[in-house]
Each structure stands twice: as structure tokens, then as C-alpha cells.
Specification:
Oligomer: heterotetramer
Shape of chain B: globular
Mean pLDDT of chain A: 96
Cofactor (chains B, C): [4Fe-4S] cluster; [Ni-4Fe-4S] cluster
Function (chains B, C): Part of the ACDS complex that catalyzes the reversible cleavage of acetyl-CoA, allowing growth on acetate as sole source of carbon and energy. The alpha-epsilon subcomponent functions as a carbon monoxide dehydrogenase.
Keywords (chains B, C): 4Fe-4S, Iron, Iron-sulfur, Metal-binding, Methanogenesis, Nickel, Oxidoreductase, Repeat
Catalytic activity (chains B, C): CO + 2 oxidized [2Fe-2S]-[ferredoxin] + H2O = 2 reduced [2Fe-2S]-[ferredoxin] + CO2 + 2 H(+)
Radius of gyration of chain A: 14 Å
EC number (chains B, C): 1.2.7.4
Largest interface: B-C, 119 and 119 residues
Number of strands of chain A: 7
Helix content of chain B: 40-55%
Strand order of the largest sheet of chain A: 1-7-6-5-2-3-4
CATH class of the largest domain in chain B: Alpha Beta
Mean pLDDT of chain B: 94
Largest sheet of chain B: 8 strands, mixed
Number of helices of chain A: 5
């Protein structure tokens, strides 16, 4: 089992509320249990093939709809994943709106999973969700993200890949 | 006395008394009568005067908060925990507090610009007098922002004084609202933020037209000279004087002294940040190439000092690293401060003898000096530079580590990763040290281009490694090649240019204006900006740049060694690339937009803000980009654009302004306006779909830019052109068709010609539109009508009765 | 035309044109000549003009930082970790950033006051004209702060306009310095903070003298009428209109309408915060007792709304809870906003028909209205109040829980302690619930007196208990007895008063001035303030109060049922107790200090800030106290006092201003000044030993107050009196002798008469002083000489050559 | 053994750096080991006789000089404790000054122990020491004090008394 919760160092705090460090197996199970999950994939997945591969695998295995932010969609064309491009700042705005019908018109989500984002950017965007929505946000990035509900700690790229593999096993 | 105007005069029987008439009550009205200048409803608007417009806009573009901190520590009731949108001890909630925080950033930026303007104006009036005429080139609208907001058409330096007092009054009113126990509603803090942004453009405009008029800057010049830029363009073997900041007032005397004494070959004069830009504008009205060199942007400040090349540093105000004195004095570089905004605790030597000051600085008795006498500064700084160069050589001042020591330094790294946590862009410093230990410098070279040299890594390092020094040392050969060209700031857009281009912009046949503004600090150096500008220029967008963006754009060259400045004309027209100038020259970008309404649409602009903003929002496809991490000034510049109806995209660091303005395209009732011809409602496209937002990557931003320029007023040709770019850019950078392209189609002639048939098929198959395939016409489907003569407006009051 | 002055006139041949001469260049100099008004060296000082004085003072009184947060989140380079005094991405360190934070609080406070002044001035000039004369009572120095800082001696409302523009320019310059990349040295942020504080007193003074002159306020009145105060003084059976805020401009029309329509018996008009105080000053020039009642301070706002008693609430600006609209609308209380600083997102109804507005508010269609037309407001608010009273009765609006439900509510408490962590004063809420469960209300009653009703406990409660409601319900009988008396604000101190008292102050025979200012929010309610004032008044100190402190002081009575206001004369003399008025009346306290120098010492004050501050610091024993938790305004008021040489003590919450100015008495070389007679150095006592600090308890503060009033200029009688109080207060409140009393002894006649022999023995035995026991004289020992004719100054330039 | 480190809840954070929660026995030993310690006693000790008693006991048993802040000195007159009155804000200022000679002229301190202070006030004062001195600050208050180097957690008055007793045993 990979331990990803040892290092939760942050450069700065956003206040008192801090995300719960979570292990990959637990995260995997939570994702599987979610009623209306959304995998939000950032453009950093394009910088690492291993990461992209696992991203696609997660989406497929858990049958997760994908919100592809930045230009990450370009890595998922013809991958068989149900992905739609959306700007992450807009998406976070809609996620706070109980009237939003989701990317598929089926209604608002209850859990979002963040992967492949720029660290400070995703933390910032999640800060809005933290205070202005009831959404559960699970960060499976390789950085500790304070403003998520749950997050991996700070890990190396290698450990990150292992952790994602373990997460996939638990889906 | 019937020719009495504002200005100064003397009266014989009152000896030694000169009377200044600052303002003639009724003068504006009188002038209006005599010259048919109409006045709009909001002359010198107060904090609430344009609130209806703000609420109108905010109803569609909602404030979106992403707090930097969910606490408030403003007053001693606190600190208060506002997480989960709780209320603090004073009753404010997180949304309200964040709106307040954003507003505070905006007025801080506005105060920086108008404080700069006030300093300049005092200085220039002192030199040239209140009656010095304003001249900014071929335009009848000398100060579009000033006129739009205050109704004043300034003709002399003195006329600006009163407008600036209005600006200061408004800023004070807004700062007052920051106080505990004032505004309770987030939406009204938003309105106040928008007010502050608008005021900022007035302040910037005053600053720039004052200096253009007095300092022989290019005046709406379509071919301003090129200047050298880059750390590589300084000849470090010569005595080097480096100036840093934003206010050229203190520096012109240095340039004059160097000219007069023939020192231009003897020593180097380089600048960082906007002072550098304005140095290249100084006396460039006649298109002579500037002697002064631009070293670079804020991101180059620490690297420049650490290089040890400067022999003397002169700072003025804004965007100056707070540790300049500390860093410089370690390398025995005296620092001269020249502005009360930045004094570094240094002794005021304004009234001292130059020889005494030189004595104290050359002997190291003092680390620097405060000098408010600019004539004295003009002599002091160059003389001191030449002396310090010799002294520093003799002392053998050593900057940066020796190349031979790099490996040893790398070996001390324990790879704890603290530097990477501290790095604003999470750069892979640990890996670079591993490689450096192996003798490979290239990873640090790679980092150099992404690093903004903020120095946080050094404070985080438990082994006290001077990481910035290592990065810089590893990149010496790269740095020596950092040379480019920047076009000196041209100032405003001229009336003839607007007259020619206005129609294309409003009908959409010129697909839009893209303004690249704000600070550098792009994690991908200068390349991102080049990519954006190059792509959009090829597509015939008008590209306008200013400030640090203008600098960075000059740092990247094509295969033929040419910068974009050398490839594209500096004219306000389709495919034109213009540098307006320094930070305060951003006002010329909004100025150009205002002039489109004034000149092309013949709108009255005096005190008529709401109508012009409405016109812009609905008809002028302009979009601003501030890509780097940035100070508070981008917040005010961008917010000023927003109130005027111009959307702005920020880079990902921009999310830390904590507030965006984002619409919900799925709220269909928000995408209606009135047709001013009869007051009927008309559907409009969901574009721009934000007023202030962020993009994750340059690739994502490309299609966003194209979509942001779509406007209800586009004619079919215009819409076709814009849609073509939107679709092509989405395909090129995201690899897919945009999924909302069909929402912008009103009729088959809106469709890109080359793909028309394919697109019609998609509309039929995927969206259920009815097509008359014989005539290749759309029979049903579009949500909007195509009616080029419609007059879209958000303002019921502008509508004729049906 | 030789009598040309500022003002307005018309010229026959320019029809419809009125010329306003705002300013005659050289007029000040001319007036100086003609009336022998000398001008000091700093007329309208800029940001750096008084920097030498600041650095002089800061060298002894060091800035002490206790950050609220060791991060900075101003710009998008950040957030940056500055802990351990690290530097952020822009190079600023924690000391610099904290100095900047403090400065920002100061200018926020200054902006609130001068923004208020600007609003008032626009309003009053609109009603009374620019030429309306200023009249503040028996004084030749109408505006001591204005004159001291700007050299202007204002005579009319219009004269204030220009001074206020100067204030706004300075505030803008200071806000500019908050921007990223400006000042790098903490000490120069401190100088800027002091500048902001000084400017604040100019802004406050303008506000108050404008309203005193126009609104028939008491004018330096030694016997202003008494007003009712307290939640208990409102007759809740009547329709009740409650106004909240700081700016009476909007409210006078309501008072006039009620007078005119004879509604004073029909309904109640009560006020919270400074608007309430100014309501009692309105038309009180003739000493008629005010009709309007003061409900209380900021700490009573939530409790007042929650009580359900108000039928309508009108707010203006400053110190208004941000949740007023939300809280009020839950109880169907319409809220009317009247100022652009506080608009709550409400619809602007200024141009609507009163009947339509009443319709919308009485039916609940709208929760409130924004109303800038004060004449309309005057009618709307009372009429609406009478109607809402009936409607709310009919609807059976229920506020606060039933007494019978209290136990059940208490039983839901799970005693998690979250409320106590959230409580700013860690009040024992959990224990009070335990007692309430047992049927005992007394612990909540005890809490009521300490609770500032901020409401943070309610947000923290996982069981959603409305804790504030419970506290209030449990304390109903206490609240009904909360009635007191406040003397209406008298305005400035008159010249005759100063003339009589000045000498006693400078020689020390009147032991000092204690000014109790600032907000309430005393965890121990009103008692602390009473204790301080009572103790100091008995000891013949002059006690001056203002704002919320003035209110709270009226809430506590002695055994005979008398408040201190009823026990002590309202005259500026030893043992006198004066309420100057509202928040902006604090300027009269510094004004009095300035007048001591002007009238008693015959100093020129025009543009002569440094000399007067130096005079105050060395000769006038005055000390300010701001005891409660407070907004940013206390930071600016206190800092303005500091620059003028007046020390200020804050309560423990004041530590959250994050910056104090504390000296080190053990640094002996810091306690020297020059003797202006010959420029020689002289040792001075280490008092005051701070300019801004905090005290932990009232008991600790008592001796601090006495020590803070010791000055080098004390004559022997004065020093003896001050030392007596210092020793007695230390013994009384700390139970010990102060361990530094001997340091203030210059000669045996400085020693308290009654204890002289005992003290001489201690000096001999413990400190090794030589005593001539026969003559009871000190032969050696004291560090300082006793020389009453010495002229202590920090300023070398004021010294005659030896 | 009393466990005082369970609850370290704060209302607000002062940044990333947070004091280490410490148990009474450990705190006791650290105090004993300090070379140049100072016990800083606040006026809140006067509100609780049990607290005052133990304060005096700590000072005596560990032979600690006492800086009595607020008006706490009035509770220690004739108690046999070496106490001097000083304002806590001034004291914190001097504690940051390497040239200060201490209350007794013997030189600067290396460890200070805080007891009997107003919670927000002591936290605020310690915030200055945290960033501008190298002093070790040990809070043995009944609240978790973020800005101390080490601190008890949030405990009840009863547990607090027990904890102090245990601390005294370990002196």
C-alpha cells in the first residue's frame, strides 16, 4: 500500500479549514460510492503520458463523466472517454449553482475529483467551492490541496502513479 | 473680460497677487452651448451614480468568489472565521468580505496610478506651468476617459489638476467603504469596485497625457522608433546605471545630463519596468532611436541585481522589489530613492552638496540616499556610476558563484522539496540540483525561462542555498543572448485611425481587438505572449500591448531574427500591432474603444458613461489579457475595462484576485437585450460569457479570445469571420469542435464559407435544424434573428417607444 | 477690485456666468503679512515633509509588531509565507508588511472620517452655501488641526472644501504606497502611518466644525443639556424608529418632520452609535433637552434588532453591522439606507413617490429602500414607522424566545465548547447553559454585561442555538433598567478655558488630561470606563470623552443614582468631565492640546506641526485611552495623537492592531533632549514610555495613566502631584510600590509631601542616594536636574546657539 | 496522566506555523531544563485561587523569576515569589532585544512560560516573539495558543488544575 498522507506541508494557509489527507484505496472507494460524480481533468495530464493513461483508465473503470479543463480535452479525443471541454473557473461557478443541470443535463453533481491541475490554480478554484457549495471535492493530485474536502499529500511523480494504480484497483 | 477662461492672470492694483481661476461655474454648460457639446447624465459620477449600470451587468456576469483566506483580520473584533460563508463579529459574511477585499485591491491599483499621476502633475506643472497645452497627436478627443467620466475636455496641464482632485475624492470615498461597519452587500462592493476601476482609467490617462504633452513622447505615432531590450544588451564592461520603477519624472534629468556631457558611450543606462519604457519614449517624438536600454520587467529585477552588473541603482515608484537596498548593498551598489512612496529609511540628501553625498556613498558610509531634487539627481547618478564602477572593480566585488563551485553547491541540496513547495510555480528545483550534481546545467537553464526570480525558494531552503544565483549562473549563455527590440510607446490611437477602422470593428469584419497588458511573470517566459500575438495577428485581429507585456513581446524572435514589432505595422487596423506605452498607457486602449463610439457612432461621450459602456458591451469586440501573476494594478485596469463592457482574461495566477465575473450561458433569460429602435426584446449570443475570468493554458485561451469578440452587432460577414476563427482555434488548440458554435449561428451566411455545407449537415443531424438543401438555407433552428440594423442595448431608457 | 477674495461673484457682461474664485495664489502669504500670521515650515505637508520628526520619535518609540497573520495575500504572486520575518515574492519582509498593514488600517479610518466629512460638506454647502460662516463658539482658532497642518484659517464652509481636497490627495498618496513594490522599509511605512493619523484629525475636524456651524450644535458649551441613554429608555409600546450610524445629515430632516407634525409623543426616535450622539446635539445650541434618545453603542445593535422593538431602521454610514438588513427583515422591520457607503443592494427609490415606497415596504414586497433625498426621508421614515408598528402588531411578529422555552433550548446544548472558542472574550457560555437548564438565569445575565453581541457564537453552534437571543431573553429585567444620562457633545474647548488652564497643564499642577475615546465593546460593559473616569476625576485630572465612550460613561450611576456627568462640571479644568461629541469630535481633544501651545505658549501654529508636536510631547501631560475592541478608526485617531506627541493606551483587544510604539527605558541614551535655551543636552524622565501600547486590565492601566502624564516641563509642585498619583495608584491597584518611582525624582521637592521622609529613606537605603537629613535635602543621586526654566525639545533647530 | 493535547481547535489561524501541543510532564521537564527561564504570569490568575496557588508553587519549586503582568502582582505580594510587575506588551518588546538585561540585570532569557493570560491577548503578544525572536515560549494556559512554541490544548478549568499539578511533579 502506498502511503500518500505523510507530507501535508503547504506554503500558506487559506484559513482554519484544511482538507483531510486521504489514502488512495479510501479515495477509490469514495469515488465508486458517489451518486453523481464528475472527474475534472486539468491540462497537466498532457505533460505526462503515464498520468494521462491512468486518467483515462479511472474515467473508464468508474464510468465517470469527464470535465476536461484547459486544453486537456486534446489528450482524450478518441480515447473512449465521455469528456467535454469546459473552463475550470466557469465549471466551479456552475457547481455552486443548485439550478445547473450538469454537463449532460442530468442535474447537479455531488462529488468531484480533481486530477491534472496546476497546484495553486486548483486550490484557488476549490476555495470557492469550499465556502459556497456543499459539494464533496476529492483531490488526487500529487500535491496537498488545502481547499479540497479530501486530498492526497505531497508526493513524487513516481509515487503518484503508484497511488493512482492503487486507487484504480479500488474503484 | 468676456474672454475670461480658466487660467491665471494678474491685476494691476493688486501687486504680487496672481489670480487663478480654477473653474468657472457654468463654463462647461456654456461651452456645451457654444460648441454644441452635449452632456450626458453622469458628469463626475459619485459612488452610486452608475450603480444601476453595474447591477444590470452584474445580473448577467455574477461575482464569483474564490477566497485567498476565509478569515477576516481587518479590525480588533477579529480575527473572524468566515468559512462556509459565516458572518464575522461585525456581521459581514465571506462573500461580502471577499468583495471588499477585491475592491480594496482595485482602489490600491487605482491609487498607485493616480498617485503617480499626482506626482507627475506637480512636477510637470512646476516645470512647464499650468497653462502648458496638452498635445497627444492627431485627435480632437485629447482625453477620452476624462471626458467620458467627468465631461471635462482638458486643454492644459492645469485642467488636469481639478480632474485629479475628483479622482482622489472618489478613491477616498471608496476606501472609506472598506471600513468596518460600512457596506453589507457583496453586490454593492462590486459596484464600488467597478467605480474604482473606472476611476483608475481616468487617473492613468491624466498621467500619460501629461507626460506625453511635456516630455516629447511619440504622439499617436504610427511609427515610433525601436528600442533595445534584454539583459544581454547591456555592455557590462561599462559603468552601468540601472533605474527601476514606473515614474520617469526623476529620470529625465539623468538622460539630459548624460546627453549634455556626452556620456552615452562612456556608460550604460538601463531600466527595469515601466520607467524603462518611458525612458525610450522621452524625446522620441521625432523618432530618434533612444539611447537608454530596457533591461526587462519586474521578473528581471532580482536577477539584474544579483548579476552584480549595476554600479548604481535609482528607484522611483511602483513594482520595485522591496529588498532592492538590502540586495544591492551586499554587492556595494548604492541605491538612490527619489519618491516619497519608496524611501527605504534612507537619509534625505536633497539639500546636501553633491560632493558630500558622493563622499558618503563611495566610501560606503551610507548605503544609499534619498534625493528629491531631480536636477541634482541628474548629475549625481551618472557621476556616481562612473566612480562606483572603478571602486567596485578595485574591491573585486564578486556576484554569483563561480562555475567551478556549482557542483559543490548542488551537492549540499538534501532534496527535501521545501523550495518546490515555496515556488509559486512548483518548478522542479530538486531535480535540477540532481542534474547539476551530475554536471548537467540544462535543467536549470530550462527553469531560468520559467522562473520569475521571486526568491521564495531561498528562504525555504534549510541549507541556505542561493537558488536564484544558481539558476542565473547556469543560464549565463542564455542570458547573454537575451536581446530584442521593442517599439517605443506610441501613445493614443489617432482619430483618423479610428475613423477608418471603427466600422469594421462594429460590424465584426475586423474580428476584434486583443489587448495584452499587465505584468510579466509568465511561467513560460515570453513565449506564451508571442504565441498569442502571432496567432491573432495572422488572423487579422488588432493587437494592442502595453507595459511589461510590451517588453516581453519584444524578447521573442522568428526564424529570421525578427520580433513581431518588426513584422507587423504599428497602426490601429486589422493585423496591426501597437505598443501604447507604459502601464498608464493602458488608458489609451479604453480610450480607443471610447473613441469608436464617439467618432464612428457619433455618440456624445461627455459625462455619458453608461451609454458608451452599453455600446461597447454590445458592439465592440475587444478583449483584454493579463497573463502573468500580477500586482493590484491589473485588478484596477481590468475592472475599469469591465465597467466599460470589455471582458478580460487572466492567467491562472489571476484566480488569486479572488473574484471573477462569470455568466451562466444556460440561464437563457439573461441573454436578452432591447432593440433600441422600438424597445422590443431580442435574443443575443452568450458572448462574451464572462467579464473577468481565468484561463488555464494559452491553448485554452485561444478559442476563448475568438469567442469573446463575438457581439450582437456583427453583420453576417463579421459573424462568419469570428465564427471561423472560433472554430479553427478550438480545433487547432483543443483538437475538437467547440460544442456551442451553433448557438452563434443566426443564418446560413453566418457560417464559415469553406465549411458551410458540412456545418449545415451537423445542424440538421445533431441539432435538428431544418435546412432547405436546394437553396442551402436554414429554415428553422436558430434562436436568434439576423438583423444587422438592430440596435442592441441593455438600457431601456435609450429605446424609442414601440 | 482690491477687495477680491475667495467666493463667488457675477460679471455683468457675462450673462448667466458666475465666477467662483476658489483660491487666490499668494493669498495665504498675503494674509500672513497683513495680519502678522507667521507660517511654519510645513504648510500642507506631503508624505515626506514631516518624516524627520517621525524618525526622531520612532528612534525612541520603536515600532513593535505582533502580526495577526504571518502571510501576505495582497497580490497574485502570493500568498507568501513571511513567518520568521522571511521575505515574500516581492521582497517585502514581515516587519515591512505589518507596518504596511497597520498603515492601511490607519488610512482606512482616516478615509472613513474624511469620507464622512466630504459627504457632510457637500450636503451642508448644498443647504447653506459656500459662504456660510463657521462658528464653533468662543475661540479665535476655529480649526486648530486644519490650521496646524495646512496653515489655512477657515472662515466659511467653502474654505473647508479646499482643505478636504488636500486630505483626499494625501490619503490617495498613502493608499498608493500600499501597492506591491512600493515602500520597502518598515520605518517609512510607520512615517506614512503617522502622516495618515495626522490627516485624520484634519478630516475629523472639518466634519465636526461644519456640522456644529450649520446644525445649531452646542458651541464650546460648558453646560450642554443631558440626553437619555439606554435600551431601557425606549417606550416599546410606541412605534419606534431606530437610526444607526455616524452621519446625522440624513436624520435631521426626520427630527424636523417629527417636530413639525408633533410626533414626539406619538412615536420613539432612538439612535445607535454616533448618529445618536449627534441627534442629541442637533439644535441643542440653546440647551433645550433633546427629544431623541440614545439607545447605545455598536455593541447594542444586534440586541436592539433582536428585541424586535424597532419598527423601522434607518442607517447612514460607519459602524453599522453588515447584517442589519438580514436580521431586520426576519422580523419584518424595513431598512432604509441613505448613504452610498452602505446600500445593501437595495433599490434606489430617491426619485419615487413616497406612497409607492410605503406600499412596497408595508406589504413586504421590498425589504428596504435606498433613499438619497433626505427631505423625502424626513417624511417617509416617521410615517412608515407608525404604519409598520400597527402592521407588525397585527402580524404578531415574535422576537426572542418565550421564557418558558428557555430551559428546552438550554437542554439542546451539547457542551462542545465551540461557542466559547468562537467568542472574542471566551465567555463561559457552556456553563451558563448548564445553569439555565437548572432554571438559573443569572449566569446569562452576568454574560449579558460582558457580551458585545457579535453573534459569532451562533455561527459556531452545531445545534443552531440562537445564543444571543438566549442571553438577551435571560437579561430582560436588567435591560429594562438600562437607563442613563449623557451630556450632549459640547464641541471644542473655548479659548478662555485654555487660557485659564494652560499653565497648570504645562507645569503639571493639573496632573494631566485623560481622554477616553473610541468604541465600546468592553468585556466588562460600562463599569471599567466608569472606574477609570471616576478615579481620575477625583484626582483632579481633566477627563475628556467622545463617541461610544461618552455613551457608555453615562450608563453607570453612583449610589445616589447620578452619572458622572451629573457629578462633575463640563468645563476644561482640573476635575472637569467633558463630552466633546461624536467620533469626529475627537479632533477637539487634539485641538485643545494644539491650543495650549497657541494660547498659553503663544506659539505660531500655522503650518508648524513639528514644533507643536515637540511642545506637546515634552510639556503637555495628556494621554488617550481606547479601551474596547475597535474598528480601524481608533488606529487613525490614536496615530494622529501619537504624531502630535500624545500617548495612547489600548485595551488588550488593541494588540490586534498588530503594531505598538514602545520605548525601552533601559536605553538611557534615548532619554535626552535639548534645552532650547542653549542647545545643551538634558536628561529627561522615561515618560511617557510608549506612544501606543496596551494594558491588560483596568487595574494595570491606572498607574500607567499617571506615569504617562509626567513631562520634563513639570515644575516641582507638578512633579510632586503626578508622582503622588503614580505611587498611590500603583499601591492601590497593584498592591506594591512602583519600582521606578525614584527615576522621576529630581529634587526633594518633587517628592510627595506626606511621604517625603519615608521616601528619602528608601532613596538612601535602596538606591544609595546621599541625603542631608538635617535639611531633608538630596545631595546626590538624581539622574536629572530640576530646572523649571529649561526648554526641553527634541529639535536641534529650535535651539539658540550656546 | 492527564491528556491535554486532544483539542487544538482555534477560532482563526495566524498563518502556517502552529505551536506543538505538549503534555504537562514534558512541559515540566523542559522548564526545569531551561538555562534562563522566566515565568510570565497574567492577571487571570487572580480570578481563580487554585490557579494562583499553583502558579506560586511552580515559581517556587522551579525557582523561576516571575514577570507579573496586568495587576497579577497584587496576588503575589508576600508569597515569597521573586516577582516584578511589568506590562506584557513592553516585556515582549524587550524579549526581542538581544541587549536587554532581563528583569534582574543578568541578561536575556531563553525560555518563557505563559500562565494566567487573556487568551487572545497572549496569542497576539506571542505572535511578535514567534517571528522576531529566537525565544522558546511555552504556554501552559487552558487554551491552545497557536503562536507559542509549545502549548497545552483546549481544556476545562478542572483538567487545567490537574495538568498543572502533573507539571509541578515533573519540575
Amino acid at each position: 500500500m502506498v502511503d500518500v498522507i505523510k507530507n501535508t506541508q503547504m506554503h500558506c494557509t487559506y484559513g482554519c479549514k484544511t482538507s483531510k489527507a486521504v489514502q488512495p484505496n479510501v479515495a477509490g472507494k469514495m469515488i465508486s460510492k458517489a451518486k453523481r460524480p464528475l472527474l475534472i481533468v486539468g491540462s497537466q495530464v498532457l505533460k505526462d503520458e503515464e498520468l494521462l493513461k491512468r486518467t483515462i483508465e479511472i474515467a473508464k473503470k468508474a464510468d465517470l463523466p469527464v470535465a476536461a479543463t484547459g486544453h486537456s480535452i486534446s489528450g482524450m479525443v478518441d480515447s473512449g472517454v465521455n469528456a467535454k471541454y469546459i473552463n475550470v473557473h466557469s465549471l466551479a461557478t456552475y457547481l455552486c449553482d443548485p439550478n445547473w443541470k450538469g454537463l449532460d443535463g442530468e442535474g447537479q453533481y455531488d462529488t468531484v475529483i480533481m486530477l491534472g491541475h496546476i497546484k495553486y490554480y486548483v486550490n484557488q478554484v476549490l476555495s470557492g467551492l469550499k465556502s459556497f457549495s456543499n459539494l464533496k471535492t476529492i483531490s488526487i493530485e500529487r500535491f496537498y490541496i488545502q481547499n479540497a474536502t479530501m486530498s492526497f499529500g505531497n508526493i513524487t511523480p513516481e509515487v503518484h502513479v503508484e497511488a493512482l494504480d492503487e486507487l484504480i484497483e479500488n474503484l | 473680460m468676456s474672454e475670461l477662461t480658466t487660467g491665471s492672470f494678474s491685476i494691476d492694483d493688486l501687486e504680487n497677487v496672481q489670480i487663478t481661476i480654477n473653474n468657472i461655474v457654468g463654463a462647461i454648460e456654456k461651452e456645451a452651448e457654444s460648441s454644441d457639446v452635449e452632456m450626458g447624465p453622469t458628469v463626475k459620477p459619485g459612488v452610486s451614480s452608475l450603480r444601476d449600470w453595474d447591477h444590470n451587468v452584474l445580473d448577467r456576469y455574477n461575482a464569483v468568489y474564490t477566497p485567498m483566506c476565509d478569515q477576516c483580520c481587518y479590525c480588533t473584533f477579529g480575527p473572524c472565521d468566515l468559512s462556509g460563508n459565516k458572518e464575522g463579529a461585525c456581521g459581514i459574511d465571506l462573500a461580502g468580505h471577499n468583495a471588499r477585499e477585491f475592491m480594496l485591491r482595485v482602489i490600491t491599483g487605482a491609487a498607485a496610478h493616480s498617485g503617480h499621476g499626482r506626482h507627475l502633475l506637480h512636477h510637470l506643472i512646476g516645470l512647464y506651468g499650468k497653462d502648458h497645452p496638452l498635445d497627444v497627436g492627431a485627435t480632437n478627443i485629447i482625453a477620452p476617459n476624462v471626458q467620458l467620466v467627468t465631461g471635462v475636455q482638458p486643454k492644459t496641464l492645469g485642467d488636469l489638476d481639478d480632474v485629479l482632485s475628483y479622482v482622489e475624492e472618489q478613491i477616498t470615498q471608496l476606501l472609506a467603504a472598506v471600513h468596518m461597519g460600512q457596506e453589507g452587500a457583496a453586490i454593492d462592493f462590486e459596484s464600488k469596485a467597478l467605480h474604482g476601476g473606472m476611476i483608475d482609467h481616468v487617473g492613468m490617462e491624466i498621467s500619460d497625457i501629461a507626460q506625453i504633452s511635456c516630455l516629447e513622447f511619440p504622439k499617436a505615432d504610427e511609427e515610433p522608433p525601436l528600442a533595445d531590450i534584454g539583459m544581454g544588451c547591456i555592455d557590462s564592461s561599462k559603468p552601468t546605471l540601472i533605474v527601476i520603477g514606473h515614474n520617469v519624472a526623476a529620470i529625465t534629468d539623468i538622460i539630459d545630463y548624460m546627453d549634455e556631457k556626452g556620456l552615452n558611450e562612456t556608460m550604460e543606462l538601463g531600466g527595469l519596468c515601466c520607467t524603462a519604457l518611458d525612458m525610450t519614449r522621452y524625446k522620441a517624438e521625432d523618432r530618434t532611436a533612444p539611447q537608454a536600454k530596457i533591461v526587462g520587467t519586474l521578473a528581471k529585477e532580482l536577477k539584474t541585481i544579483r548579476s552584480g552588473i549595476p554600479d548604481v541603482i535609482v528607484v522611483d515608484e511602483q513594482c520595485i522589489r522591496a529588498d532592492v537596498l538590502e540586495e544591492a548593498s551586499r554587492l556595494m551598489i548604492p541605491v538612490i530613492t527619489t519618491n516619497d512612496k519608496v524611501m527605504y529609511g534612507l537619509k534625505d540628501r536633497s539639500n546636501d552638496d553633491i560632493e558630500d553625498i558622493i563622499e558618503d556613498l563611495t566610501t560606503g558610509k551610507e548605503k544609499g540616499a534619498l534625493m528629491f531634487d531631480y536636477e541634482k539627481l541628474g548629475e549625481l547618478a551618472p557621476r556616481l556610476t562612473i566612480m562606483m564602477s572603478e571602486i567596485r572593480k578595485q574591491k573585486g566585488i564578486k556576484a554569483l558563484p563561480e562555475e567551478g563551485d556549482l557542483k559543490a553547491i548542488a551537492d549540499t541540496c538534501v532534496h527535501c522539496g521545501a523550495c518546490e513547495v515555496a515556488c509559486p510555480d512548483s518548478l522542479p528545483i530538486s531535480e535540477a540540483f540532481t542534474r547539476l550534481s551530475e554536471g548537467d546545467l540544462t535543467k536549470f537553464e530550462w527553469i531560468h525561462d520559467k522562473c520569475i526570480a521571486c526568491g521564495r525558494c531561498e528562504y525555504a531552503c534549510p541549507k541556505d542555498i542561493d537558488v536564484v544565483d544558481v539558476i542565473e549562473k547556469c543560464s549565463q549563455s542564455l542570458i547573454s543572448e537575451e536581446v530584442g527590440k521593442v517599439r517605443a510607446g506610441r501613445g493614443p490611437i489617432s482619430d483618423p485611425e479610428i475613423r477608418e477602422e471603427g466600422v469594421n470593428l462594429v460590424l465584426g469584419t475586423t474580428p476584434g481587438i486583443v489587448a495584452l497588458v499587465g505584468c510579466s511573470n509568465y511561467p513560460d517566459g515570453t513565449k506564451d505572449l508571442y504565441t498569442i500575438a502571432d496567432e491573432m495577428l495572422r488572423r487579422n485581429y488588432i493587437v494592442v500591448v502595453s507595459g511589461c507585456s510590451a517588453m516581453d513581446l519584444g524578447m521573442y524572435k522568428n526564424e529570421d531574427g525578427l520580433t513581431l514589432y518588426e513584422q507587423y505595422p504599428s497602426r490601429f487596423r486589422s493585423g496591426g500591432l501597437m505598443n501604447t506605452g507604459s502601464c498608464v498607457s493602458n488608458s489609451h486602449i479604453t480610450g480607443a474603444v471610447i473613441k469608436v463610439a464617439a467618432i464612428f457612432a457619433q455618440k456624445n461621450i461627455s459625462g455619458n458613461y453608461e451609454e458608451i459602456a452599453d455600446y461597447t458591451l454590445n458592439r465592440v469586440g475587444a478583449v483584454g489579457v493579463a497573463w502573468g501573476a500580477y500586482s493590484q494594478k491589473a485588478a484596477s485596469i481590468g475592472t475599469g475595462c469591465n465597467r466599460l463592457g470589455v471582458p478580460v482574461i487572466l492567467g491562472p495566477h489571476g484566480s488569486k484576485y479572488r473574484r471573477a465575473l462569470i455568466s451562466k450561458p444556460y440561464e437563457e433569460d439573461k441573454w436578452n437585450v432591447f432593440d433600441a429602435r422600438d424597445g422590443s426584446e431580442m435574443k443575443i449570443p452568450a458572448a462574451p460569457d464572462y467579464l473577468l475570468t481565468t484561463a488555464e493554458t494559452v491553448e485554452e485561451m485561444m478559442p476563448m479570445l475568438a469567442k469573446s469578440c463575438i457581439r450582437p452587432s456583427d453583420n453576417n460577414m463579421g459573424r462568419m469571420i469570428k465564427l471561423t476563427h472560433y472554430i479553427e482555434l478550438t480545433q487547432k488548440y483543443l483538437g475538437v469542435m467547440p460544442d456551442d458554435w451553433h448557438k452563434f449561428v443566426r443564418t446560413e451566411t453566418d457560417l464559415p464559407l469553406a465549411k458551410r455545407e458540412d456545418l449545415l449537415k451537423i445542424l440538421e443531424a445533431e441539432h435538428g435544424w431544418e435546412i432547405d438543401w436546394k437553396r442551402k438555407k436554414i429554415l428553422s433552428g436558430p434562436a436568434m434573428k439576423s438583423d444587422v440594423s438592430a440596435q442592441p442595448t441593455n438600457l431601456k431608457r435609450l429605446c424609442k417607444e414601440a
